[in-house]
Write a structure and sequence with these properties.
This is Peroxidase. The structure is a single chain. Helices cover 41% and strands 5% of the residues. By secondary structure, the protein is mainly alpha-helical. The chain has two domains: 142 residues, Peroxidase, domain 1; 121 residues, Peroxidase, domain 2 (Orthogonal Bundle), CATH 1.10.420. Helix 6 crosses helix 11. The protein is globular. The termini are far apart.
Length: 318
């Protein structure tokens, strides 16, 4: 199967608020006017080679913003003397770092010490979503990079969490139930390792479609690290089919399936399943809000020269 064949390039444009949480649309217009186009070009090349990079960036962005805010702390490499968020359990399957590094290298050549790694993650995620057929939304920039990366800070909602448990994590970050269901719709692209849902296979989870169970059981019996698409219909297209899948009891992760079964979220799922444009609009707005969580602006933090290490003049504190 050719990966690109499943990808739709239909782009939707949404007008969103120009300023959010001290961030600003066009923040680099005067200091690095080509910043967004440089990131876009790097992402386009990466996407052409591997359309699953959309899911990788969405996961990276979420894992970054839900820990210390959107400060690129997830990008810091561990050293012999200091650990970092990268080694935390939930982040060990995060990928896409090499693409961020390529974008940063190009930006440093064009505009040294100007564009933050935090903004690169945000822009790369937006651009990859658009390439996969999702909304091409406007994002404010102006984030600065954090000075702390501690694996002990990584406390993220897992795939087996309940709807109420997941909602607690989202509300702690200022997001509501509609935004939670919307952002989990990012599972319309990408895949999951069997070990993330193995507890649903033994014993068989009655909330899972029997045909899907048989398929997953066969795949995962080979090895726990095997992967399956989270959307069994249009795996590389950013659309609303994820919601239709979970209505048919074809959710892979427990939290995904619970969205369609829980009374607090079932109606939202049904609404998105029947209204693709509504989902795209809601997703664009939720992503802008996600990208504003606890951001560093002004003179806070720093602009890293390399995304994987703190600047030498400002030592990181672990």
């Amino acid at each position: 199967m050719q990966m690109n064949s499943a990808v739709s390039f239909l782009i939707f444009f949404f007008v969103l608020p120009l300023v959010l949480a001290d961030l600003q649309v066009g923040f680099y217009d005067s200091t690095c006017p080509q910043a967004e186009s440089i990131v876009q070009q790097v992402v386009q090349i990466a996407f052409s080679k591997d359309p699953s990079i959309t899911a990788a960036f969405l996961r990276m962005h979420f894992h970054d913003c839900f820990v210390r805010g959107c400060d690129a702390s997830i990008l810091i490499d561990p050293t012999k003397n200091n650990s970092s968020e990268k080694v935390a359990g939930p982040n060990q399957t995060v990928r896409g770092y090499n693409v961020i590094d390529k974008a940063k290298k190009s930006l440093e050549a064009a505009c040294p010490l100007t564009v933050s790694c935090a903004d690169i993650i945000t822009l790369a995620t937006r651009d990859s979503v658009a390439l996969a057929g999702g909304p091409n939304y406007t994002v404010p920039t102006g984030r600065r990079d954090g000075l702390v990366s501690n694996p002990d800070d990584v406390n993220l909602p897992g795939p087996g969490i309940s709807v109420s448990g997941a909602l607690s994590s989202f509300t702690d970050k200022g997001m509501d139930i509609n935004e939670m269901v919307t952002l989990l719709g990012a599972h319309t692209v990408g895949f999951a390792h069997c070990f993330f849902f193995s507890d649903r296979l033994s014993p068989p989870d009655p909330s899972m479609d029997p045909t899907l169970f048989a398929k997953l059981n066969k795949t995962c019996a080979k090895k726990a690290s095997a992967t399956v698409f989270l959307d069994q219909s249009t795996a590389f297209t950013f659309d609303n089919q994820f919601y239709n899948q979970i209505l048919l009891k074809k959710g892979i992760l427990q939290i995904d399936q619970e969205l369609a079964l829980d009374n607090s979220t079932a109606s939202i799922v049904s609404g998105f399943a029947s209204n693709g444009l509504g989902f795209q609009d809601s997703f664009a707005k939720a992503m802008v809000k996600l990208g504003s969580i606890e951001v560093l602006v002004g003179n806070a933090g720093e602009i890293r020269k390399s995304c994987s290490a703190f600047n030498k003049k400002k030592k990181g504190v672990f």
